[in-house]
Amino acid sequence: MNLGNPGNLGDLGTRRRRLALAAAVPLLLAGCGGGSGGGDRPGDGDGGSEAPEVPHGYVAGAEEAAEPQPRLVVAEAGTGAVRVLDLATEDVTEVDAVDAAAGVDRLTGDGRYGYLATADGTVTVVDGGAWTVDHGDHAHYYRAEPRTVGELPGGGALLGAHADVVVTALTYDDGSVVLLDREALGAGEIAEAARFDADAGAAAVPFEGRVLVPGAESVAVYDREGTRVGALDQPCPEPAGAASTRYGVVLSCADGALLVTADDAEGGDALVGEPIGYPEGTEPADRAGAFGLRPGSGTVVAPAGERDVWTLDLAERAWTRTGTGPVLAAAAPGDGATVLALALDGTLRAYALGGTEKAAAADPVTGPVLAIDTSRAYVNDPAAGVVHEYDYADDLRLARTLDPGVTPDLLVETGR
Q1: Is 221 helix (H, G, I), strand (E, B) or coil?
Q2: How far is CA 81 from CA 95, 97, 104, 370, in A?
Q3: For residue 154, how many C-alpha atoms fall within 13 Å in the half-sphere facing its CB?
Q4: Residues 113-172 pLDDT 10s
Q5: Domain limits for position 106
Q6: Looking at the domain assignment, is residue 359 inside a domain?
Q7: What is the CATH number for 282?
Q8: What is the pTM of this model?
Q9: Which partner from 41, 84, 371, 373 sits 20 to 30 angstroms from 416, CA to CA?
């Protein structure tokens, strides 16, 4: 999990002084044909010669694996050095560094790519070389060589990156949105599908062939060419975050959450917003911030102001608050019963949902990033120069201490 988040986006200079949430992001969804990988095949247009069968799930330039291929994209803020750490083999790959003259201070991911932003708004795209394509009844797992794809000139500060199988939406704090063509990214090139000004108040999210842009007045709906085509009937005042989940897109709003789904009764074309209000008596200072989740989960978490942690179960449309105290980051394994919280003193703790502490890691760490996947949690420790891997199903047992070869100021997980 990019838990990301943003699970996992944040300002390095302020994350140690205020709440932040970093979580893995949801898996990219794609259709699955019967026996072709799609696109041109050898023999097409060659005067009638028979084309060889393309294996199901074939992706040019990638190797298909039998299980997920998790990796960490790790960045050193001061130098711009970037490494990709293979969590299966512990091999470390050096990729082209970011021009760190302006200082690398943000890193977010979308399941395959890491987006590193400098203080001047420039974004460098790194291909982690591992990803999952989930078809519902089965999944395909791929691995390829990690690499730096290229650099995208910016303007404002990067707010977030969200993706589907077609585009990645990068949102900046000046309200502008850039859509990147993911097919081009896979080929090692940066190509803008659209760039538009949207007065965004939070990160734009691709969904059902369109792009949702939460703003101060409404949730605007754009097409993939950057043209506004409508808005949801339900507003989202003061948007603070967004996440793609197995149930749809969930937005963090001043009065609670807004879950956006496709209306099957309308042929899947209409988008519907369903408000999920906070429990009665919730104070404005305790509203949820940025959401994070484990990939493929229907449960999201967020800091509850500066006091503790919210969990939102989208299956039940229910909020639960867990008395963790102030946190640097939080995440949920998705079991509906556990919350992980990185306390201000650097101790990773596990809590029963809405209840008491169940376990704590033995030693505090110095990092504010918490990433989570289906079996492990990862916490960076810049002071020690390592990343700690915890087994959250075994009382937060320290499973491994990983050396990425650079100071792990920032990280995201890919491949899940």
Answers
A1: strand
A2: 8, 5, 9, 20
A3: 25
A4: 999 999 888 999 999 999 998 877 888 999 999 999 999 987 788 989 999 989 999 999
A5: 12-28+59-414
A6: yes
A7: 2.130.10.10
A8: 0.86
A9: 41
